[in-house]
Backbone:
């Protein structure tokens, strides 16, 4: 039995962008990929990220915020960083066949203003990540 390609999404705190990407790839690709996300630190799952995902019918409330696991990193087929900090500080990847990409997105958790303005930023980032994941699923890049 052939194993599924493993996609590891990385961000600074594994609370927003990487969680959104994880949920979207699960939803858009079904069981075509093994998907996990992690951060340089574990900041906990952001409630606003859960809310904007639930708005499009994706439940990430059962996800956990995790620190990068060197074992998972070494067996990943794709390592995708979603913020510049994670891209710059990602641990060395020993797997020479891994495809590493950087898809930089603004951190919606840094948005300021009224609640609706903050939620609008979360939706904007969610939709940008969704577009990028759809491209990955459809084109493999």
Residues:
């Amino acid at each position: 039995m052939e194993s599924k390609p493993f996609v590891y999404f990385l961000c600074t705190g594994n609370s927003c962008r990487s969680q959104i990407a994880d949920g979207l790839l699960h939803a858009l690709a079904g069981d075509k990929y093994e998907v996990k996300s992690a951060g340089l630190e574990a900041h906990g799952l952001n409630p606003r990220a859960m809310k904007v995902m639930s708005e499009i019918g994706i439940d990430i409330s059962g996800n956990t915020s995790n620190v990068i696991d060197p074992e998972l990193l070494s067996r990943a087929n794709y390592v995708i960083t979603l913020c510049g900090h994670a891209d710059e500080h990602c641990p060395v990847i020993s797997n020479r066949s891994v495809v590493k990409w950087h898809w930089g997105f603004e951190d919606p958790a840094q948005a300021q203003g009224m609640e609706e303005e903050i939620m609008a930023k979360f939706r904007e980032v969610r939709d940008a990540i969704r577009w990028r994941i759809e491209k990955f699923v459809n084109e493999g890049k």
